[in-house]
Amino acid sequence: MSDKELHNDFESLCAGYVLGALSEEDRQRFLKMLEDATPEQKAFYKEMQQAGSELALTVEPRTPDSNVRNSIMNAIDAEKADKDSSGAANIFPLNFYRVAAAILLMVFFGLAYYSFELNQTVEQQETTITQLKGDLERQEQFLDILAAREVNLVIMGGLEPSPDGYGKILWDSNQQRAVLQLANLPAPPGDKDYQLWLIKDGGNPISAGVFSFDEPRSDLFFKVEHLDEAPSPLENTFAVTLEPKGGVPQPTGDMYLVGQQQ
Amino acid sequence: MLRLQKGDKSALGNIYDAYNKLVYGLIYTILKGKEESEDCLQEVFVQLWEKADQFDPSKGNLYSFLLTMARNKAIDVTRSRDYKDSKKEDHIINDFTLTPESKYNNPHEDLELNERAGMVRQALKRLSEKEREVLHVAYFNGMTQSEISTKFEIPLGTVKYRMRQGMIKLKDLLASGINE
Q1: Quick check: A77 and B96 CB within 8 A?
Q2: What is the model's pTM?
Q3: Residues B34/B28, Cβ–Cβ less than 8 Å
């Protein structure tokens, strides 16, 4: 088919198409041609379409029954109502699940927070119980020592690093046990401990254990574990020095407290 | 139309008030019966409401969109079994000029449409009678080129030629304002 024949074919099919007069086969053929049409052919089609639709203007205008308008509006209202109700039916479950999910999330986080708080409380109470048990144990030991027939009391005074500090040792020499009280001493740094020494008759200090605490208090009591030395009948001196963590064989640090058995 | 596309029911009422007589006249011309024409008219406007989003102003004006919808809907009715059973296809008026001239004086609701309708009638008068006949039966009776060929015993090639020539003339006359 020549270009001119193709052009005429397009125009012929176009005329038939805008009048709705093509067979299905020709209609499909024209739609295919329209897909590949040039801008001029597309403009031609648009003008033909407009001209075709304007054939309707030649009809005699007629007035329909006035009820038709109401019927149309009622039909649209009914359709809108259907849409709204079906929309609501769709929305309701969606909202319902959203609200339910939100409530469940709130309950979940609420319970999680409550559980966390409860755990914190339990942990705090367990710590308190442990502290109280330790305090009670030390007080029982203190009372045990006080109940002993012979108890030595050694009072230690504060030295330069902590002049307000003081300490006491209740020493049951027969049972080789003692309780140490430390008061108004600063908490030792993380890499240090306080170390208790027994110096008998001016000899070499004997380690009686290391002690540590987080906050300075006036009622810090410690069980002295390593005082298995018999007291000297002449002179027994106790001293507290600040030493490297875990203690040292002989004192190396500053002396904070010192006191002699009277 | 924008209001209609946004779901404004009153906009549909305004469009109905502006075009109902023209659309009903078109449907009645095709279907010939009052009751079924009114049913069809109702369907057209409900369809306009439903398919308002398909209207693209860049592809044509509102009345063309509405008239095309009405024409197609009415032709669909003529092709339904019930309509064929009633044998109304016998009522073919195959030339625009058979419409009494006095009825052309019925004004459309819209002045611009009225002027445009006059222009279309003038343009059609410039076509040959045979060309008008082919355009008319195709548009108002929904007949295909093959059906026209059979019904009026005209060779198919001739039907296609007359249809092409008639539409091109109509298009050119309308585009030039009937000065050719």
Answers
A1: no
A2: 0.55
A3: yes
